[in-house]
Design goal:
It is built from 14 helices and twelve strands. The chain is of the alpha/beta class. The strands form three sheets. An eight-stranded parallel sheet has the order 3-2-1-12-9-8-6-4, covered by helices on one side. Helix 8 links the parallel strand 8 and strand 9. The longest helix is centred in the middle third of the chain and has 25 residues.
Length: 413
């Protein structure tokens, strides 16, 4: 009997159907963020990374143009099992001549659409409200300047049109997520007025309606960031209320909350009221929110909440981190495979039995079963999943990354 067959037998004693889990995991899409491949540089050339965004490190082989980024992305997705999507920012528009942010159009993403269609990938999208001269005093949509607000409102509108067009052309709804860096470094004299300006700006951006089958809108909060330690205009409370009132989606980034808060606990609360919940999965370390995703307890809990609540089609999973200190392709692969490991682990839990024990007040047996489940041979099932998906199992994938680094990345200079 193979190790996988032994694992199936052990899981069956807990009432878990391993084959059902393997069938389910392969169809849960994960949106892979393009900005890991080039340190959030984009293709505009000219604006330094700013707005609370910072990529640290100078590992060789950074993608310098759209072709290199697509080549690197190809290398990564060959090593990641399951269903995948691409997550783009507006600064990744492909154009022979410079395009200002408020004038970006769907045609500037035709090459991305062609790339995705050939690989059967969906696309998600983000307007880029940072790294631009029109970010004045750290403010965009909440700026006291009407000129600045109008510029970014036009950019937000243009981004939603792009996202809707992408969704229509690919036949799968495009998530268009809005995050702004607006806030203040020190104690504010007025917390309300900037939020009222933000509310008015959002009302204008979302005034245009697009079919739900093409576009899903979301707004993303943050507790603080570099240079905005004392006050962020787009707080969780602001966006949750705005989303609820306007029928759009909230995006939860698990690096954008206080250290004692957990996104895993927020997901079921949002599911009680929302058709969709969007995620940016990252790994917070102290004040930074964008480390490569590891298979840690909170990631496992996030996945459990998605699976145990039958929400694999309601929770839209995207990754969001950027590490320039290690091989960028390896960073993509590590994070994506860990997200899939967490989901597969969640699919292999005896959720129905655990729920019955909780409802019956049998907390002793509940604890026993939870603890026993931790040492079930999950790794053997993961190995089988990789084999069935035709991607390298274990750490075998890393040898291919090292070869690509030697033959391609190090020659970029």
């Amino acid at each position: 009997m193979s190790r996988f067959d032994q694992a199936k037998t052990l899981y069956s004693k807990f009432g878990v159907d391993v084959e059902k889990a393997l069938d389910a995991i392969k169809s849960i899409p994960i949106s892979l963020h393009c900005w890991q491949g080039d340190d959030v540089s984009g293709f505009e050339r000219g604006s330094a990374l700013s707005g609370g965004i910072q990529a640290t490190g100078n590992y060789p082989g950074k993608a310098r143009n759209s072709q290199e980024l697509m080549d690197d992305f190809d290398q990564a997705i060959r090593l990641i099992p399951g269903t995948k999507r691409i997550n783009l920012h507006a600064i990744y528009a492909i154009s022979e001549t410079p395009v200002e942010r408020d004038k970006v159009e769907p045609k500037h993403f035709d090459k991305w659409i062609e790339y995705a269609r050939k690989r059967n990938l969906g696309i998600d999208f983000n307007p880029t409200f940072f790294s631009h001269p029109m970010v004045k005093d750290g403010l965009t949509l909440s700026s006291p300047s009407q000129e600045i607000r109008d510029f970014w409102i036009r950019h937000g509108k243009a981004s939603r049109k792009i996202a809707a067009t992408i969704g229509e052309k690919l036949g799968t709804a495009c998530l268009c997520n809005l995050w702004i860096p607006d806030g203040l470094k020190d104690v504010p004299a007025d917390r309300l007025t900037p939020r009222l300006r933000l509310k008015d700006s959002l009302d204008q951006i979302y005034a245009d309606r697009y079919p739900d089958q093409f576009l899903i809108d979301s707004v993303e909060s943050k507790v603080f960031g570099i240079g905005v330690e004392s006050y962020t205009v787009g707080s969780a409370e602001f966006y949750q209320n705005y989303a609820a009132r306007n029928g759009i989606c909230c995006l939860l980034d698990n690096g954008h909350f206080h250290p004692t808060e957990t996104v895993s606990d927020k997901i079921p609360s949002m599911l009680a009221f929302s058709d969709h919940v969007a995620l940016h999965v990252t790994r917070p370390v102290r004040w930074d929110s964008d480390h490569v995703v590891l298979l840690e307890d909170e990631l496992k809990e996030i996945a459990k909440e998605i699976v145990r609540n039958d929400a694999t089609k309601k929770v839209l999973i995207g990754l969001d981190y950027f590490d320039a200190s290690i091989n960028r392709i390896a960073a993509w692969v590590i994070g994506a495979r860990n997200m899939q490991k967490a989901l597969l682990n969640a699919l292999l839990q005896p959720h129905d039995e655990l729920k019955k024990l909780q409802d019956a007040g049998n907390f002793t047996k509940l604890m026993v079963m939870n603890e026993e489940a931790k040492t079930l041979p999950f790794g053997d099932v993961w190995e089988e999943y990789c084999v069935r998906q035709n991607v390298p199992a274990g750490s075998d994938w890393f040898g291919l990354v090292e070869r690509y680094e030697k033959n391609v990345l190090k020659k970029r200079g």
